[in-house]
Design brief:
The complex is a heterodimer. By secondary structure, chain A is mostly helical. Chain A has 15 helices and two strands. Chain B contains twelve helices and no strands. The chains are: A mainly alpha, B mainly alpha. Chains A and B meet through helix 1, helix 3, helix 4, helix 5 and helix 6 of A and helix 1, helix 3, helix 4, helix 5 and helix 6 of B.
Chain lengths: 309, 272
């Protein structure tokens, strides 16, 4: 992987001067994109904080309501349950997808001839919208016409959406179906950039494939693992389309995760202030995680797993 | 050097292929048969009487119009991204100011802002701007939210242009404009096509912004059409799945041609 190098903000290093002064673009070049991004991503982010202290029905003007929304949120049983469900689904997603995508990614990074053919089918879920994926699985798992209705020996009463455990299982499974290809891809890229010298050295020392995997491949994938897991966590916490289409938060509120609860509160119950408060909680969690990724993964500075080679 | 094949992962990859391929096959098979055949034979049966009825019916349900809307949104989002992200990435890579470093950090943080988190204020902003239920109200936030990843991909590509080339151009006394158009843009063609495909994919598959920011049928996009179809005619599974197939068809055609660009770009996200 030479053309798509790892993203990083390089610390300013002394510039090599060689005669001609290089014309450098000024800050002005970044202005259009930055303004656009500020206006449509950062300003709403600030507004969500403001709106969380107001009561607003979506039609009139927001009115200052102090800490009302927050007080309500702390005592809201559904909110607490939804946070717990979000965490559960996220953790299950990471646990299922990480080993799968590492194994598949490392395998795909090899030089097999059939790889190209396989990967053409492999990455189809990457192209599908979460809506399409959810509808596809909703149809396939339909209690009356779907696969479970034909294989009751395996699926019990065939109604996977009728019980909390199986409904959560479906959400985790569909999430893995859709996102494992993406993570496989980033592991594939990372695995391909591991220096072959390491394997050659290991081979000379007589290390087998399994030992090579645990002592070279995995440690070399450290940074990628962090990035990938953080993406999974942020993605998991904000799972929304899947829940809306597959379970509608049900049965009851058994799969009502925070992002879905926020949508319901704001756009179904027209409690936009309360919805904003939940959204802010999600933002805070996501920001903490992203700060961790920027720090730990070395995105903001050059740090390579090949140090000391 | 010869590396022994990884049998465990190889086996896993075949299982995974099955897991990916089977649902896609079942979906295609379902769309090619009548509703009654599907419900009596079950999802795993091979279609007996092949028909394209489900597809034609979707078009009479307005999918053609939803397609046009989605196409419009996608083209506009790609245009915006191509207009503002390359100069941004150029500035991030080449300008030595502190501010541009700060800007890059801002975009990196933006990677982690989930659209759900800002959907309420977005609704507020778009309503106040009088853009509610207009496609432009969907286009603007969609473009903004695809910028962080695009900037990330493109800066990665632009960083690989060697300093010698800039110095050679400087010898000629080239201005930043000339350097941008004669050096940076031609050498980042791969990255540019990646961000094109990527932003198009995001726009085409966008769901939350259209769901919350539009209302009437005239501004409905494909994903939303799918969602409404599902809530209204949920029992008509072959018809619904035909709509799903239709929704992915254009993007699949693009994928066949731009697979390399997309895959390369996404591989770069993981870092080394």
């Amino acid at each position: 992987m030479t053309t798509s190098a790892a993203p990083r903000v390089e610390r300013r290093r002394p510039v090599r001067r060689s005669g001609a002064a290089v014309a450098r673009p000024g800050f002005a070049w970044a202005v259009p994109a930055t303004l656009f991004f500020l206006l449509f991503a950062v300003v709403p982010l600030i507004l969500v904080a403001v709106l969380s202290f107001t009561s607003w029905d979506g039609l009139g003007s927001p009115e200052f309501a102090g800490l009302d929304n927050w007080r309500e949120l702390v005592h809201d049983h559904t909110m607490i349950q939804s946070l717990w469900l979000s965490v559960l689904i996220t953790v299950l997603g990471v646990v299922v997808q990480t080993p799968l995508s590492i194994l598949l990614g490392v395998w795909a990074a090899g030089r097999q001839r059939n790889r190209a053919i396989l990967s053409a089918v492999y990455f189809v879920p990457l192209l599908l919208s979460a809506t399409a994926v959810s509808i596809l699985w909703r149809a396939l798992l339909d209690p009356n016409f779907g696969v479970p209705s034909q294989a009751k020996w395996l699926f019990g009463d065939g109604n996977l959406f009728g019980h909390q455990a199986s409904a959560i299982g479906v959400l985790v499974f569909v999430g893995a179906w859709q996102y494992t290809p993406f993570h496989t891809l980033i592991y594939q890229g990372a695995a391909r950039s591991i220096p072959q010298v390491l394997y050659q050295a290991a081979e000379i020392d007589g290390a087998g494939t399994v030992r090579q995997f645990f002592h070279i491949t995995l440690p070399q994938l450290r940074n990628t693992m962090i990035t990938s897991m953080i993406l999974m966590v942020v993605g998991g916490l904000t799972t929304f389309d899947t829940v809306l289409i597959l379970t509608q938060g049900g049965p009851g509120t058994d799969t009502t995760i925070s992002a879905y609860y926020m949508y319901q509160k704001a756009f179904k119950s027209f409690d936009f202030g309360g919805g904003s408060a939940i959204a802010l909680v999600l933002v805070l969690i996501a920001t903490v995680i992203s700060l961790v990724v920027v720090k730990v993964s070395g995105y903001d500075k050059m740090r390579s797993t090949t140090e000391g080679l | 050097m010869k590396r022994r094949p990884n049998y465990l992962a190889g086996l896993g990859s075949v299982v995974w292929l099955f897991l990916i391929g089977l649902p896609l096959y079942v979906m295609l098979a379902a769309t090619l048969q009548d509703r009654s055949d599907y419900s009596s034979n079950g999802p795993l049966a091979f279609p007996e009487h092949v028909t394209l009825h489900n597809y034609t019916q979707d078009f009479s349900n307005g999918f053609g119009h939803f397609f046009l809307n989605t196409l419009l949104v996608t083209l506009a989002v790609v245009a915006i991204v191509l207009l503002v992200v390359p100069p941004l990435s150029y500035a991030i890579v080449r300008s030595q100011g502190r501010i541009t470093t700060g800007v890059f950090r801002l975009f990196l943080l933006g990677l982690a802002i989930p659209a759900q988190a800002v959907i309420v204020p977005m609704f507020y902003v778009i309503s106040k701007a009088g853009l509610y239920d207009h496609l432009i109200g969907v286009i603007l936030p969609t473009a903004a939210f695809s910028m962080p990843v695009c900037a990330l991909i493109l800066t990665g590509v632009m960083r690989d242009i060697t300093p010698d080339l800039y110095e050679a151009m400087a010898m000629d006394g080239a201005s930043p404009w000339r350097v941008f158009f004669q050096l940076v843009v031609p050498l980042s063609k791969g990255g540019l096509s990646t961000i094109m495909v990527f932003s198009a994919l995001q726009a085409w598959n966008g769901f939350l912004f259209p769901l919350v920011l539009t209302q009437s049928d005239s501004s409905k996009v494909v994903t939303l059409g799918l969602f409404n179809f599902q809530t209204e005619h949920g029992v008509d599974i072959p018809g619904l799945l035909a709509a799903v197939v239709l929704s992915m068809l254009p993007i699949f055609i693009v994928y066949l041609f731009a697979r390399r660009a997309l895959v390369q770009g996404l591989m770069g996200v993981g870092g080394k």
